[in-house]
User: Which sequence fits this backbone?
């Protein structure tokens, strides 16, 4: 040993200088870590009662600079409910028989505003040869945000797990990453059996192309909601499900996964099938007598016209209009049943649009005396479509325009021709439809729940059929509407 410095004699001044520089560097590095992580440090010497808190530690506790800190102040700031547990852990760490390690998370009440925060404190006790605590040093970190995030995660997890719907997440390649208890009940596979497996396991062979189609729609920014389809369970049973799928995006907006909610609608589908069967049967039975009633009315109407009996002619004309209304209702019911069975057939022919629209507009005028049905010229436009079905679409739109314009007004049916397309529209000056309902009008059995239309009867299938018939013609029904001003329903068709 060097007598003056107490250092080994082989160490030169240069070595010492290097060691000092290294020490300064590592202190600087530690300082950087401490300040960038907002990690507080503390130093407690029980033998003298001295307790030192770093600047960061004081900030965490909301302690003003200059205020002296001691053990009592520290204990005072621990949340009353956590005090007992914290003191016990300190005691354990200071027990000479222990390894002296200390790690605890608790709530504190900040000195400045009394607000509650969560902190995690870790430390180590050093004992002297007498088994007394020489010093107790450690760190403290504010973990409130992590704690809240974890609590939120746990709450969400509990909701997901108690959900009646199957909630599944998967990668963009279709590999399952999470699987809740309802997914286990619905599809029969446990989470262990499905996590890491391809979702394609649930798809019947004839629907394998649905997954890429859904992904393409999501990539296009479209939402996939209430998509009704069929999936297969572990026990090879086919079930009807309604899927709502949303993309999971990273901070840059890239799709990194998909979350899927699947609702088992098998019961509902069976119920619908039974309802459809019933509707189809009743409608079919009503159709034959109604056709014969209409024939008799026509014959009587022709006679009364010949006899120039104005009263009879008027009465029979009204009876004919009502019978026609019934025919179109029955027609809607039968179309619905056929559509559900996938039996709807589109027979296209080329025809003059004006003739069809004029026929329908004049029939519609008979249905109402309080509205004026105006036809805007559609001459010289030919389209290739199913004439009867397009007629059914227009009748439905016109009869709705009459029904939902209780104060009368003008109802306009007309066309606007572009180069290759024609826009066919029906507009009214009626009650209008609010934006939220506009989105759902074309769903089966959907009716607006509003005081204004409480007394207007209907089944909520007219617009569903309109949308479906037009879908079969590769086009789409659209609506523009303002409440208490009126609505315009329109669609585009290719001209021949
Ligand atoms: P229904 O008329 O039998 O209820 P629809 O499917 O034809 O069934 O229409 C669905 C709903 O859309 C109606 O209940 C009504 O609330 C609303 N609706 C349809 N057409 C109009 C219209 N022209 N003006 C205002 N509301 C309309």
Assistant:
């Amino acid at each position: 040993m060097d007598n003056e410095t107490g250092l080994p004699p082989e160490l030169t001044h240069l070595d010492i200088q290097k060691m000092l520089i290294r020490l300064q560097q590592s202190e600087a590095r530690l300082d950087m870590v401490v300040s960038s992580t907002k990690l507080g440090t503390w130093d407690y010497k029980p033998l003298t009662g001295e307790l030192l808190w770093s600047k960061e530690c004081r900030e965490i506790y909301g302690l003003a600079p200059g205020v002296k800190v001691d053990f009592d102040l520290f204990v005072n700031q621990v949340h009353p409910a956590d005090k007992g547990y914290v003191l016990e852990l300190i005691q354990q760490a200071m027990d000479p028989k222990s390894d002296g390690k200390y790690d605890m998370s608790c709530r504190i009440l900040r000195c400045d505003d009394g607000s509650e925060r969560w902190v995690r404190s870790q430390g180590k006790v050093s004992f002297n040869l007498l088994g007394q605590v020489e010093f107790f040093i450690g760190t403290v970190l504010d973990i409130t945000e992590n704690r809240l995030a974890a609590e939120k995660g746990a709450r969400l997890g509990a909701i997901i797990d108690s959900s009646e719907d199957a909630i599944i997440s998967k990668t963009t390649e279709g590999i399952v990453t999470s699987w809740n208890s309802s997914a286990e009940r619905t599809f029969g596979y446990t989470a262990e059996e499905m996590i890491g497996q391809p979702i394609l396991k649930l798809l019947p062979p004839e629907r394998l192309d649905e997954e890429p189609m859904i992904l393409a729609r999501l990539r296009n920014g479209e939402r996939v909601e209430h998509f009704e389809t069929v999936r297969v369970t572990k026990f090879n049973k086919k079930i009807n499900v309604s899927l709502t799928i949303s993309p999971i995006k990273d901070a840059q907006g890239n799709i990194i996964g998909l979350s899927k909610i699947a609702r088992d609608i098998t019961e509902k589908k069976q119920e619908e099938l039974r309802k459809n069967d019933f509707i189809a049967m009743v409608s079919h039975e009503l159709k034959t007598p109604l056709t014969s009633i209409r024939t008799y009315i026509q014959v009587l109407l022709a006679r009364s016209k010949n006899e120039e009996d104005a009263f009879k002619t008027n009465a029979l004309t009204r009876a004919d209009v009502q019978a026609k209304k019934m025919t179109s209702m029955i027609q809607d019911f039968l179309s619905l049943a056929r559509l559900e069975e996938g039996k709807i057939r589109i027979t296209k022919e080329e025809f003059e649009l004006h003739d069809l629209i004029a026929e329908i507009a004049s029939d519609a005028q008979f249905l109402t005396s309080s509205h004026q049905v105006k036809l805007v010229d559609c001459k010289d436009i030919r389209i290739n479509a199913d004439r009867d079905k397009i007629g059914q679409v227009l009748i439905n739109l016109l009869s709705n325009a009459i029904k939902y314009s209780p104060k009368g007004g003008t109802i306009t049916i007309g066309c606007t021709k572009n180069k290759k397309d024609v826009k066919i529209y029906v507009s009214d000056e009626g009650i209008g439809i609010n934006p939220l309902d506009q989105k759902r009008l074309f769903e089966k059995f959907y009716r607006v729940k509003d005081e204004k239309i409480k007394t207007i009867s209907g089944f909520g299938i007219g617009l569903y059929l309109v949308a479906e018939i037009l879908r079969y013609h590769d086009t789409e029904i659209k609506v523009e509407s303002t409440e208490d001003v009126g609505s315009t329903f329109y669609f585009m068709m290719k001209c021949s």
